[in-house]
User: Which sequence fits this backbone?
C-alpha cells in the first residue's frame, strides 16, 4: 500500500502578519508549522499504515526551504519519507498552479493508492488544492472524510455534510480530504524526532522535463489576490439607562423594536 | 468577631464616593456585589458578600479609604482578579472590598536596568506580552497567568510551573509601594538587585495574603526571553518510577528544566475528556511534563534529547516531543485544565496545595492511596514534581450526599495535612491559607511561631481591619 499525504507549511495563526501592499502573508520572523488541519490527514494515513501492512507514507509539500521543518515533524509522527518542492519558480502559485505542480510530482514519484490531504489550509482557507490535484490526476475524490474503511481495492468512507453523513465507496487509487472528525492526531515521539533528524528529504526543483516555463508561480496562476486586509469590526453599542417608570417603558419599547428589526418574532 | 466591626452606612458610601468617584463604588446592587463574594474556591462555605466595593485608581485614594475604615472600624479586603484558591480575597466580615481592577497600567519598562514597574491590576500574562518584542520576560508563571493579576501574585507569592528553574514571584520583586493598614504609603526597595538596608519588608509583605498591606506599585526584575522551548511528555507505569527520574534529570542530565510537572492517570483522563484530547494514557499510571528552554532550538533539542533519554533509561515507556508553540500549548493545556475539568465534574471538591520534599513524593503517594481506600473517595493528584508542590484534590463520590461530604472532608483534610507534615511538608505551597485552610495552620506552625506572626499583624494593623478572618484560626 502506497500512501501520500500532502501537507502545507503555514504560519502560526496568532502570529499572522499581512503585507497589505503586496497582498501576501509576511513569513519572515514568524514561526511556521504543519497546517493544523493536515495533522488529521497524517493521522489517518498512519492508522491505515498500522492496519494494512506493509504500507509506506510519502509526504509531499510545496513551499520555502524552511518547510523541511514541517516535513521532519510529520516523519517524527511516523511517516516514512518526504518530498519538498521548492524554488522561486514556484513562489506565488495560486491554488491552480499549486495543484498542477503537486500532481506532476505525485505522478512522477510513484503510483499512490491513496492520497490524503487536510480539508483546507488555515492560511489560504480555500479547500481547493486537494480536489484540484485529484482532477489533474484524473482520480476520484472524496472530501470532508470522517471515517475510512479499506478493503482489497476499495475504500468506504463517511463524509460530513451539512445534513448529516454520507457514505461512499470508491475504487483505488483515490484522493481523500480528511476532516477533524477522524480523531485526534498523535504527538511526535522522541524516537521519531531522532529518526526524522537524520531522514533524508528529497528536494524537487523546477525541472523542464516536468514543467513548461510559465506553468508555475505567479505566471502560472490564473487568479491573483487583489487585496488583503484585516477587517475592522465595529460594534455600536447603546446602553439604555432608564431612571423612572416612564423611561423603563420607553426602553422596553426600544429593545423590542431593536430585536424585531433583526429577528423574525 | 463580626461584632467588633461596624456596618457600612449610606454616609460611609457617600464618603467612599467622594474618594474614588461615584462610578467606582458598587453598593446596594446584589448582583454586582455577588461577583466580589468569591474566588475560584467552589465551596459556598468560603464565600462572603461585601457590603460595598470600591475601585480606586491611586495609592492616595487607598490611603484615604484605609483611614476612613480605621475611623469607622470597617473591615477592608483587597482583591485582585479573584482567581485565588484559598478564599484570600473574600470579605469574611463584609465591609469594603477594595478591587484593584482599575489600577492596571504598566508604568515603566526600563530596558537599561531590566526592570518593569506595574500597578497591581495588570494581568500577569500581559506583562510578558508587552515585553516579548523587547526580548525580555518576567519569569513568574502561575497556572492562571492569563487571568490573574500581578498584585495577587505578590500577595500570595504565587509559584507555578516554572519554579524549579526560575523560583517563585518573590525572587523578582525589587520594589514595592504599599498602603499600610493604617493608611500610610510605604515605598520599599527600588530598582536595585541587592538591598539589606533595614528589615526586608518587601519579603514580609510578599505572600502576606492581603493582611498586611495593599500593593499599589510593583517593580519586577526581568530576564532575557529564551529563544526556544520544547516540552516532553513522558509516560511511566508507576508514580515511583516517574518521581525517581526527577533528581536524575538535574544530577545526571546537568540541566535545570523549566518545569517538571506530574500528573496521575485520573487527572490526565479527566482533563483529556474535558478537552476532547486523546493521549495514550491507558497504560500509564503517571506522566511527567518536562519543559526545557534555551537560547535556540539547537540548544533546546540537545537538552531535550538528553532528558528524554534519561527518562527512557529509567522506565518511561514513551516520550512525546512538542517543539512548536501550537503543540506545546496542546500538551500544556492538558496540565492547565485539570483543575477546571474536576470543577466541571463535581461542585464538591477540595483543591489542595501541599508541598513536600521531592524525594518523599512516592511515599506520600502511597499514603494518599491509603487515605483514598480508608474514606472510599478519589483523590487525584497532579502538580509541580520539580518542587514537590502537589495539588491533591479530594472529590465527592457520586453516591455521597453533600451532607456526607461536609461531614467527612474536615477529617480527610486533617489527615492529609498530618501526612504532609509527617514528611516535613507544608499545607500550602503557593495558593495560601486564606479562610480555607486557617483552621489547619496549627498542623504546620508551632504556637510560638503563630504568636510572632500575630504580633507582626497587630503592629501593622492595630484595629485588625485589613482582611480579617484569614490565615489564623
Assistant:
Amino acid at each position: 500500500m502506497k500512501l501520500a499525504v500532502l501537507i502545507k507549511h503555514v504560519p502560526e495563526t496568532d502570529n499572522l502578519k499581512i503585507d497589505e501592499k503586496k497582498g501576501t502573508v509576511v513569513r519572515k520572523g514568524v514561526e511556521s508549522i504543519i497546517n493544523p488541519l493536515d495533522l488529521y490527514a497524517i493521522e489517518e494515513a498512519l492508522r491505515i499504515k498500522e492496519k494494512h501492512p506493509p504500507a509506506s507514507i510519502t509526504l509531499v509539500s510545496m513551499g520555502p526551504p524552511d518547510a523541511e521543518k514541517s516535513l521532519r515533524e510529520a516523519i517524527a509522527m511516523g511517516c516514512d519519507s518526504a518530498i519538498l518542492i521548492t524554488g522561486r519558480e514556484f513562489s506565488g502559485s495560486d491554488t491552480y498552479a499549486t495543484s498542477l505542480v503537486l500532481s506532476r510530482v505525485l505522478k512522477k514519484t510513484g503510483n499512490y493508492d491513496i492520497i490524503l490531504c487536510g480539508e483546507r489550509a488555515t492560511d489560504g482557507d480555500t479547500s481547493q488544492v486537494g480536489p484540484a490535484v485529484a482532477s489533474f490526476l484524473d482520480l476520484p475524490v472524496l472530501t470532508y472524510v470522517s471515517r475510512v474503511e479499506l478493503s482489497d481495492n476499495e475504500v468506504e468512507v463517511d463524509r460530513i455534510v451539512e445534513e448529516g453523513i454520507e457514505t461512499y465507496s470508491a475504487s483505488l487509487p483515490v484522493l481523500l480530504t480528511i476532516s477533524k472528525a477522524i480523531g485526534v492526531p498523535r504527538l511526535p515521539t522522541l524516537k521519531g524526532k531522532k529518526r526524522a533528524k537524520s531522514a533524508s528529504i528529497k528536494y524537487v526543483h523546477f525541472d523542464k522535463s516536468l514543467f513548461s516555463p510559465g506553468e508555475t508561480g505567479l505566471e502560472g496562476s490564473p487568479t491573483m489576490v487583489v487585496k488583503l486586509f484585516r477587517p475592522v469590526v465595529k460594534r455600536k453599542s447603546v446602553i439604555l439607562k432608564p431612571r423612572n417608570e416612564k423611561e423603563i417603558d420607553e426602553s422596553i419599547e426600544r429593545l423590542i423594536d431593536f430585536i424585531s428589526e433583526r429577528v423574525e418574532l | 468577631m463580626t461584632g467588633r466591626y461596624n456596618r457600612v452606612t449610606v454616609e460611609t458610601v457617600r464618603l467612599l464616593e467622594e474618594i474614588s468617584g461615584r462610578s467606582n463604588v458598587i453598593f446596594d446592587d446584589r448582583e454586582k456585589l455577588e461577583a466580589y463574594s468569591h474566588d475560584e474556591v467552589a465551596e459556598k462555605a468560603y464565600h462572603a458578600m461585601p457590603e460595598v466595593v470600591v475601585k480606586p485608581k491611586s495609592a492616595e485614594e487607598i490611603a484615604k479609604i484605609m483611614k476612613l475604615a480605621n475611623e469607622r472600624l470597617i473591615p477592608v479586603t483587597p482583591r485582585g482578579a479573584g482567581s485565588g484558591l484559598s478564599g484570600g480575597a473574600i470579605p469574611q466580615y463584609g465591609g469594603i472590598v477594595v478591587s484593584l481592577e482599575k489600577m492596571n497600567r504598566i508604568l515603566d519598562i526600563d530596558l537599561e536596568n531590566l526592570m518593569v514597574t506595574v500597578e497591581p491590576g495588570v494581568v500577569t500574562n500581559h506583562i510578558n506580552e508587552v515585553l516579548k518584542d523587547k526580548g525580555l520576560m518576567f519569569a513568574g508563571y502561575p497556572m492562571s497567568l492569563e487571568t490573574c493579576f500581578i498584585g495577587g501574585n505578590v500577595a500570595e507569592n504565587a509559584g507555578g510551573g516554572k519554579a524549579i528553574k526560575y523560583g517563585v514571584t518573590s525572587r523578582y520583586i525589587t520594589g514595592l509601594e504599599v498602603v499600610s493598614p493604617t493608611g500610610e504609603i510605604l515605598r520599599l526597595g527600588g530598582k536595585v538587585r541587592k538591598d539589606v538596608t533595614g528589615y526586608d519588608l518587601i519579603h514580609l509583605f510578599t505572600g502576606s495574603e492581603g493582611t498586611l498591606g495593599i500593593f499599589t506599585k510593583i517593580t519586577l526584575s526581568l530576564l532575557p526571553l529564551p529563544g526556544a522551548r520544547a516540552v516532553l511528555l513522558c509516560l511511566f507505569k508507576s508514580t515511583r518510577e516517574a518521581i525517581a527520574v526527577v533528581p536524575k534529570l538535574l544530577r545526571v542530565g546537568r540541566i535545570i528544566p523549566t518545569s517538571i510537572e506530574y500528573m496521575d492517570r485520573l487527572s490526565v483522563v479527566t482533563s483529556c475528556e474535558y478537552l476532547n484530547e486523546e493521549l495514550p494514557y491507558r497504560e500509564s499510571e503517571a506522566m511527567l511534563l518536562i519543559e526545557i528552554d534555551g537560547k535556540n532550538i539547537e540548544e533546546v533539542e540537545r537538552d531535550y534529547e538528553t532528558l528524554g533519554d534519561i527518562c527512557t533509561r529509567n522506565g518511561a515507556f514513551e516520550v512525546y516531543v512538542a517543539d512548536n508553540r501550537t503543540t506545546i500549548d496542546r500538551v500544556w493545556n492538558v496540565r492547565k485544565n485539570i483543575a477546571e475539568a474536576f470543577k466541571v465534574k463535581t461542585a464538591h471538591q477540595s483543591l489542595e496545595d501541599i508541598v513536600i520534599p521531592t524525594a518523599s513524593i512516592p511515599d506520600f503517594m502511597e499514603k494518599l492511596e491509603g487515605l483514598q481506600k480508608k474514606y472510599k473517595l478519589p483523590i487525584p493528584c497532579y502538580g509541580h514534581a520539580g518542587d514537590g508542590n502537589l495539588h491533591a484534590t479530594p472529590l465527592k463520590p457520586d453516591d455521597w450526599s453533600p451532607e456526607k461530604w461536609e461531614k467527612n472532608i474536615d477529617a480527610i483534610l486533617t489527615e492529609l495535612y498530618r501526612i504532609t507534615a509527617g514528611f516535613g511538608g507544608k499545607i500550602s505551597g503557593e495558593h495560601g491559607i486564606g479562610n480555607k485552610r486557617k483552621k489547619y495552620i496549627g498542623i504546620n506552625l508551632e504556637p510560638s511561631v503563630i504568636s510572632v506572626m500575630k504580633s507582626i499583624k497587630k503592629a501593622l494593623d492595630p484595629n485588625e481591619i485589613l482582611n480579617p478572618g484569614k490565615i489564623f484560626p
